[in-house]
């Protein structure tokens, strides 16, 4: 089964509706014997630029924070992906930013074109990469995670492979298709029950996504990601295509 993020005009930014639909799709096919492997990709130049920070989606997100469902919606999707019993192959056709990159840490095999770039850009907008930290830190380690979270800098596909994030890097989309299909054929040749147990075993022995960790990052998401003055200021600057002046922001906050 192939799933394609299809908002190329918005760099495949994720909306609450997309999150709900993908979660429902995963649950519908979790026990479907006709689905043996899941391929995630994006249409156009981007894999995904992360959460949609447009004004409309900010309002929707703030409403969800008010009802306590914003963090839980994202957490449930990430957990649905992480615990999906079939292999998930990421066909990374272009840049993956913020939550778009974080989502990829729930996949099992990751292939990217050489032109793809990756960044956790949340801090540049005054946002905390809270929920995704539960998945990023165990895989990259605290050192790489903090460097990427704190700087928000982009890294190349080659660097992403160097730090252990990518399974392979290819030059063109044609090669990406060939390599993706090669992996599809490989996993289709394996026992589906055995692969499901392999995923469960790895998830069990790994230290990430323990319930107490998920509760903490979900609460942090609700408290700091959308409703804080810093996040609101950072997102407003983003919408205006302006560089945030954090020094001035802190001065203004000190007056309150």
From TrEMBL:
Family the entry assigns: Belongs to the enoyl-CoA hydratase/isomerase family.
Origin: domain of life: Eukaryota
Gene3D superfamilies according to UniProt: 2-enoyl-CoA Hydratase, Chain A, domain 1, Lyase 2-enoyl-coa Hydratase, Chain A, domain 2
Species this protein is from: Arcella intermedia
Descriptive protein name: Enoyl-CoA hydratase
């Amino acid at each position: 089964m192939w799933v394609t993020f299809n908002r190329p005009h918005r760099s495949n930014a994720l909306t609450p509706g997309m999150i709900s639909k993908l979660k429902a799709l995963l649950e519908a096919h979790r026990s479907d014997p006709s689905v043996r492997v899941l391929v995630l990709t994006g249409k156009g130049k981007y894999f995904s630029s992360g959460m949609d920070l447009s004004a409309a989606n900010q309002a929707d997100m703030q409403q969800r924070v008010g009802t306590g469902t914003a963090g839980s919606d994202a957490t449930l999707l990430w957990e649905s992906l992480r615990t999906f019993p079939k292999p998930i192959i990421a066909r990374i056709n272009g840049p993956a930013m913020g939550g778009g990159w974080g989502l990829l840490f729930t996949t099992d095999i990751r292939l990217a074109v050489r032109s793809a770039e990756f960044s956790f850009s949340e801090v540049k907008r005054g946002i905390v990469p809270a929920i995704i930290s539960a998945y990023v830190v165990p895989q990259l380690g605290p050192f790489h995670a903090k460097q990427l979270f704190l700087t928000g800098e982009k890294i190349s596909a080659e660097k992403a492979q160097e730090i252990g994030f990518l399974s392979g890097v290819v030059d063109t989309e044609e090669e990406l298709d060939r390599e993706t299909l090669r992996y599809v054929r490989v996993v289709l040749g394996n026992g589906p029950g055995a692969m499901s147990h392999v995923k469960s075993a790895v998830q069990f022995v790994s230290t990430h996504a323990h319930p107490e960790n998920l509760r903490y990052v979900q609460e942090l998401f609700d408290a700091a990601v959308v409703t804080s003055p810093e996040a609101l200021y950072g997102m407003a600057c983003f919408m205006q295509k302006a560089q945030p002046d954090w020094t001035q922001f802190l001065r203004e906050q000190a007056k309150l």
